[in-house]
Amino acid sequence: WYRARGSVADQGKRAVAWKTGKMFQPDNLFFRTVDTGRLLPMALADFRVQLYAVESHWVFVETQKPKDQFAQETMHGLVLLRNVHDYGGADMPIIIVNWQTPIVEAALDYWVESSKNQWSEAERAKQFASMHPGLNPCLYQVDRCVRSLLRGDDPDVGYVAPVIVFSRVQPTNMLIQTSGKCFPLFTRASHALPGLESFPTTCGAPQCDEPDCGYWNMKAARSLHSPSPMVGKPSRKDDRVVCNLWGCEVQHTETTKLQQCIKCKEVLYCSRPHQ
Question: How many alpha carbons lie under 13 Å from residue 117 in its C-beta half-sphere?
Answer without folding.
Answer: 7
